[in-house]
Each structure stands twice: as C-alpha cells, then as structure tokens.
Design a protein that fits this description.
It is a single chain. The protein is mainly alpha-helical. The chain is 80% helix and 0% strand. It contains 13 helices and no strands.
C-alpha cells in the first residue's frame, strides 16, 4: 500500500492546486462555479424526493437520518467532477496568499467569481426543480418548506456559529481529499464529512442557498428576509471556518520545520 502523505506534501499540493486556480481565466472560473452551483443542487433534489416519499411513514429522527444520507450526492458530483465550490476555496485559495505567491486582491476576485457563480447556478437549479418536481409529482412543495425551515428558524448568531463549524469541516474535507490516494477513498471521505454536516443540520452557504431559495419560491411561510438572514451569516461563518480554522492552522503547523 502507498504510504500516507506527509503534512508538508499535502500543503504543497494544496498550494499548487490553489495557484492553478488563480492562473485560470475569470470566465473559466465563473463557468466552472456556475456548473458547481447547478450540480450541488442534486443534493436538494434527492433530499426533497426522499422527504416526499417517506415523511409520513418515518419518525422525525429517522427522516433526518435519511435526508443526511442524501446530502453528500451533490458534493460528490462537484468535488470529484472538479467543478468549483466556494467552501472549498475558503481554505484552498488563501494558502497561496500565505505563501506570498498571490496578492490578497486576487484572492477576493477569485472568491467573488466562485461565490456568485455558485449562487447563480443554484438559483437556476432551484427554479427548475421547484417547477418540475411538483408537476411530475416526485416532490411536494411542503418538502421545500420543511428543508428550508430547518435552516432559517434560528437567530443570526446560531446560523453564524453553525456555518463556522460547517466551513471548518469543508476546509478539512479539502485537506483530506488531497491526502487521499484514490478516487474511491476520496468519495468515502466526501460522504463521511458531508453526511455529518447534513445530519447535524449545519449551515452551508451554497447548498443552503438552494434549499432556502427553493423554500422561498415554493412557500409563503419562507420570506426573502429569511433567505437574506441565512445567506449573509452562513457565508460569513463558512468563510471564517475555512480560512481561519483550517487554512491558518494547517499552514502554520505544516510550515514549521
């Protein structure tokens, strides 16, 4: 068997991967992020379909567990398919800045392109699935409300701290995917980490954007202010979790000889 990668090897690979992203054209980054926003929406499609099929037959605990099992599918599509995802870049893209290879200004440009590409792709996916799902019948509108309500029914500071934990885990996920040797091991790592995020109900600013936006356009009980409250605090929390708790700490201990 291949030996485990040393922490310095993982850091070098992360920096190299981050630098490659900075060398891509802005249009290429945005299109990849737009695709990522579309692809990660399949988590919502899977979750809302399973909710529609089984919520009348399962306890709330069993339903939560079942939805958490559905949650990783969009992340597998995006991460293994190498589309851009904002919560990967909160940690990944900041490492070349610490290394002195990239200016902070370029970091914010990259973050902006990936973030808004993800959001726009997610909005389009929401519009499609919220329209087609109820017509065909594989999703009932109450599924969108239930999933969205589980994210917005908190004060801002709860969303912030929950998102910080989710951002921390997503940053660790990027680190673990880099340390993994094979595609199957990477898929297993993605499933384990994102399953925990889904089971705990932690706030992810891209998947959650799709979930809450779908709830808003499908139910009068989810307001646009609910969406904005979620999106602002989830984005801040995810960014802090990935940039500080992963990028800063991992870079600090990996670069100390």
């Amino acid at each position: 068997m291949d030996r485990p990668k040393d922490v310095s090897e993982i850091l070098d690979e992360q920096i190299d991967t981050g630098l490659k992203e900075f060398k891509r054209s802005n249009s290429g980054l945005f299109i990849s992020a737009f695709a990522g926003g579309l692809e990660i929406g399949f988590s919502l499609l899977f979750m809302s379909t399973i909710f529609t099929m089984f919520h009348e037959h399962l306890s709330s605990e069993a339903m939560q567990f079942g939805l958490a099992l559905c949650y990783p599918i969009g992340f597998i599509f995006v991460i293994i398919g190498r589309s851009e995802l904002y919560t990967e870049h909160t940690a990944l893209a900041i490492l070349p800045v610490f290394d002195g290879s990239v200016r902070p200004k370029d970091l914010f440009v990259l973050w902006g392109l990936v973030y808004f590409g993800n959001l726009i792709g997610g909005y389009l996916f929401s519009l499609m699935v919220a329209h087609v799902g109820p017509i065909i019948g594989f999703i009932k509108p109450e599924a969108f409300y239930h999933i969205a309500h589980e994210l917005v029914d908190y004060d801002w500071h709860v969303i912030l701290l929950s998102a910080l934990l989710a951002g921390w885990m997503m940053g660790l996920l990027g680190w673990l995917v880099t340390s993994s040797q094979e595609t199957i091991s990477r898929i297993i790592v993605i499933i384990l980490v994102t399953f925990i995020i889904g089971l705990a109900g932690l706030h992810h600013c891209i998947v959650g954007s799709i979930e809450v936006f779908s709830g808003w356009i499908s139910s009068p009980d989810i307001s646009f202010s609910d969406y904005l409250k979620f999106q602002i605090w989830a984005t801040i929390g995810n960014t802090i979790g990935g940039a500080v708790f992963v990028a800063v700490l991992k870079y600090s201990h990996a670069s100390v000889k």
